[in-house]
Structure formats: C-alpha cells, structure tokens
Write a structure and sequence with these properties.
This protein is an alpha+beta fold. It is built from 21 helices and eleven strands. Helix content is 60%, strand content 8%. α3 packs antiparallel against α4, α4 packs antiparallel against α5 and α15 runs antiparallel to α16. The protein starts with a helix and ends with a helix. Belongs to the ABC1 family. UbiB subfamily. Belongs to the protein kinase superfamily. ADCK protein kinase family. Keywords: ATP-binding, Cell inner membrane, Cell membrane, Kinase, Membrane, Nucleotide-binding, Transferase, Transmembrane, Transmembrane helix, Ubiquinone biosynthesis.
C-alpha cells in the first residue's frame, strides 16, 4: 500500500469513527485486538451519538464521496442482507455532486470526437445541466452542417481521472471487506467480498458509455411507437467510451406531483402505466431498465390525458431468461393464491435450492412468513416486499443469490413507490395479474405447442426434401441390424446347448463313480478307466459342436 492509499484509508476510517460506525463491531474476544487498535491509534469520538445508525452511515458515505455514495445506493437494494430501516436510509443517498470545470469537459469531448465541438454543435453550454458521481451532462444543438440542424442534444462525459479514483477506492473496499468477517460473527452472512465484487462490476460497466448507448438503443427499439414509454435517440456516430451524444428531452419530473396535476395528467392511468411498462419489459422483452429512480423518469408534457413516460440513463439494465420469468410469474400467482407448496416446489425445480430440500418444511416456512402479509388488502401488498420475503425464506434453505432478481426487486420497489406516490389507490395486483397470467397461459397448452412448431418450421422445410432418402437409409440399416442380431442369437444358442451337454456328461460320470466307490462295488483301477472314458466323450462332444458351429 503506497502513501496515497494509506492516507485515503486513514480518512475512511476517520470518517467512519466520527459517525460512530464502529459500534457495529461486537465486544467479543475475537474483536478485542481491533477494539484495542481503535483506541490506540484513533482518538475520534462519535459526534452524532443520538442519531440512528442508518442515518449516520448515510452521512458518512456522502462525506466520503462519489464512489462510496454509489456503494450505499447499491447496498440499499440488498434487502436480503440488511434490515429495512438501514436499506430505506441508504436509498436516500443522492447521486449529485459538484460539477467539474466545463472547459475541461469541452477538452475531453473534443479529444474523444477528434475535432473541435463547432464541427458538429452550436451553443455548447459549459455549465453542466446535471452532475453525478461518474459523469456530467452539457447541452448543445446540432449546427447547420448536420442533417438534424437545430436539434437540441445532450452530451454526457465521464469525469476526468474518475477511473483511477474508483480503482483506488475499490482496492481499499476489498481490504475492508476481508476484515469484516473477522470483526463480526455476522460478517460471513453479509458476504462483504461478494458485495464489493458485484459493485465493482456495476461501476466498471458505467465507465464505458458505449454500453449505456447500446442499452438505450435496445430499449428504444422495444418501445418504438409506444404510447407508454419513450427513450431518447442516441447518435451512434458521435458516441465513444467516455462521451455519448443523445437527443435532449423535455418533460415533467415524475416526482413533481403538483406540476403533473397542474398539467392535467391522468394520475390513475400514469400510475398503472408504470406497472405495465415494467411488466412489459420483464415478460415480453426479458430486458429491463434497472435504474428507474425518480431522477431518471420524466412525463411528456403532451397529451396529459394519455400520459407517456420518458426514461433516461440506461447504464444499468437487467436481463431475464425463461426460467427467471417462470419463477417470477408462478411464484407471484401461487403467492396470491396462497399456494405455498407450489412456491416451495418452484424454488427446487428452478435449481436454486438443493434437490433434497424438505418440501414440507420449505412450504411451512413460506406459510409462516408470507401469510401475515394477507392481513392487508390485496391492493396494498407490495410485490417488492413479497420477493424480499421469498428470498429471505429461500436463503435459509441454501438458495444461491440471483443478481438479476435482486436488480429486478430493486426496480420493482422503485415502480411501486412511484405508482403509489402518483396514485395512492393503485391496485398493483389488479394491474399486474393479466401480464402474469397471460404469460403463463402462453407457456403451456396449444398456444405454446403451435408457437414452438412455428419457430421450427423453417428448419422442418429445410430438411423435408431429404426426408424420404433419410427414411430409406434408416430402414435399410435397421434390416441389417436385425439380420446381424439373429445371427448372434443363433450362435449364442448353440454355445449354450454345447455347454449344457458337456456339463451333463461330466456330472453323470462323477455321480456314477461316486456311488460305486461308496458301496465298494467297483475296483479303483476300473473307476479310473471309467472317468477317463467319460472325459474322452466330453472332449469328443465338444469338438463335434465346434465343427458344427
């Protein structure tokens, strides 16, 4: 560890101690050295003893800067690891930091595009429109030399040197993560190294803006001409690893309820469409925007009676396969039907819990945790918290963490929170059930069979001309196999008959000689001659059979 890293580590520890985060270290013999070291080298007292732990942790992460803010945001989604109180507090972390110099942003963009900004743009604003921990955005418009002259655009640029900062802080995070299991008996359950590794992947993905561009293009294509969702256009020829250029959108922030109402927005339709957009992405497209917090969602000013969402910042997405969708649909339907045995069986059939799982015990565990949820009306039940409870129970039966489902749970909680903020009477089950039931109906029965036949029809047509010849060759081979099997059976039968005859001859001879010796009616020399004769007959019989074969 170099001096720079050591100083950074000292500041991290200093900040955590100032907010009293060290109180989570238990006072047990295993942690005695750590507690002694804390008193020997750090004389910092908790300056906020009357504030709850969750709030103090949020304030500490905010003070440590962008990388730690994003870590807290990610931890807020891991409700399978942390208490609801802690997760809710971390969810309040705002990814908004001071912008860096606009002249430096201009320089970075020009280096990435290979020429002066005036080659493509007019009215580049060096004052950032918005600034976050990884990147910031600036506004401009296409100039007269471009096909879309006068079109308003947004240029998103990665912060300078942020990659070095991220890698340095990640190195320290890994060191801290390896210490946590030693400091707390509950440390292994939190799987700190796994959490940091998952966070590292998310961060490094966000450093390549080309991935965000590709995600946005895919989402835009999925909702082309849709009344429900609009994704801004990406201008691919001007997109690089650290710079992307996209269409600028104008809309009402979805969290601004007063402005939405003042614009005449149909709040009920808007809330229901949020749920519909989510389930369409999940069950139709198997590809969903996984960062749909209020800062990334707007509502179109036009047609407030038929409201349309606008989604931006597609850096984080989730993908589901057939088994994931089957898991979700069947578990939600079974849960709302209170069929906890089906819920238990689905977890085993999905391969996420061991095959030898006690189904009866699994069912009972689900029943005990999930049944109290039905004390509320169906319209007030949270899908996100249903998933949270299912994951909690399944983890006790050795279910492996499924990152794509954790992302989905986080997104679902965002959607639910927004939906009920927009329209408190929103009935999530009534809105979502048609998507779940229709998808399940399409996976079984005649519809599913016809769809699979239709999918394989081109392959059937391709090989249809070869079918008669292939059938003739198969029948010819089968005839040859039958003839050969008949020859083998005949040979085996002859060998069995020969073996049985020789065996009978020897047994009879031995029995006769034994009887005669027993009653002393035959001299020994004559007995020997008889045995030799029986053996000679056996050899002759065996030789004749061999000649016949």
């Amino acid at each position: 560890m170099n001096i720079k890293n050591f100083r950074r580590l000292y500041r991290i520890i200093h900040t955590f101690l100032r907010y009293g985060i060290d109180e989570v270290i238990p006072d047990i013999p295993l942690t005695r050295n750590a507690r002694l070291g804390r008193k020997a080298f750090f004389w910092i007292k908790n300056e906020f003893p009357n504030k709850p732990l969750g709030l103090r942790l949020r304030l500490a992460l905010q003070e440590l800067g962008p990388v730690w803010i994003k870590l807290g945001q990610m931890l807020s989604t891991r409700r399978d690891l942390f208490s609801p109180e802690l997760s809710d507090e971390l969810a309040l972390l705002q990814d908004s930091v001071e912008a860096f110099d606009g002249k430096l942003a201009r320089q970075i963009i020009e280096e990435a595009l290979g020429d002066k900004l005036e080659t493509w743009f007019d009215d580049f604003d060096e004052t950032a429109l918005a600034s976050a921990s990884i990147a910031q955005v600036h506004t401009a418009k296409f100039n007269q030399n471009q096909p879309l002259a006068g079109k308003d655009v947004v240029l998103k640029v990665i912060r300078p040197e942020i990659e070095n900062v991220i890698k340095s802080d990640l190195e320290l995070m890994y060191r801290l993560a390896h210490w946590i299991p030693r400091l707390s008996p509950d440390g292994k359950r939190l799987r700190p190294v796994e959490v940091v590794r998952e966070y590292e992947k998310t961060l490094l993905d966000e450093l390549d803006l080309r991935k965000e561009m590709a995600n946005a293009i895919r989402l835009r294509n999925n909702f082309e001409n849709s009344e429900m969702l609009y994704i801004p256009e990406m201008y691919q020829n001007l997109c690089r690893k650290n710079v992307i250029v996209m269409e600028r959108i104008y809309g009402i922030p979805v969290s601004n309820i007063e402005e939405l109402k003042a614009n005449g927005t149909d709040m009920k339709v808007l809330a229901e469409r949020g749920v519909q957009v989510f389930f369409t992405q999940v069950f139709r497209d198997s590809f969903f925007h996984a960062d749909m917090h209020p800062g990334n969602i707007f509502v179109n000013y036009d047609h407030p009676e038929n409201p349309q969402y606008i989604g931006i910042d597609c850096g984080i997405v989730g993908q589901l396969n057939y088994h994931d969708k089957r898991y979700l649909a069947e578990n939600f339907v079974a849960f709302f039907n209170r069929d906890y045995r089906r819920v238990a069986i689905m977890h085993v059939e999905s391969g996420w819990t061991p095959e030898d799982t006690d189904i009866d015990g699994f069912e009972q565990a689900f029943r005990e945790v999930c049944e109290p949820i039905f004390a509320k009306p169906l319209s007030e039940i949270s899908f996100g918290h249903v998933l949270y409870n299912l994951f909690n129970v399944a983890r006790q039966f050795n279910m492996e963490v499924q990152p794509q489902l954790v992302l989905l749970q986080k997104t679902l909680l965002y959607i639910e929170g927004l939906g009920r903020q927009i329209y408190p009477e929103l009935d999530l089950w009534k809105t979502a059930k048609p998507f779940l039931q229709d998808w399940l109906d399409e996976q079984v029965g005649v519809k599913s069979m016809l769809r699979q036949i239709n999918q394989h029809l081109p392959q059937f047509r391709e090989h249809f001309a070869e079918f008669p010849e292939s059938l003739f060759q198969a029948l010819k081979q089968q005839k040859q196999i039958n003839v050969r099997l008949a020859e083998i059976n005949k040979s085996i039968k002859k060998q069995n008959n020969s073996g049985r005859s020789a065996t009978r001859l020897i047994v009879i001879g031995c029995v006769i000689c034994g009887i005669l010796w027993r009653f002393d009616t035959l001299p020994i020399w004559l007995s020997v001659i008889l045995l030799v004769g029986f053996f000679a007959l056996f050899v002759r019989e065996s030789g004749q059979k061999a000649i016949d074969d």
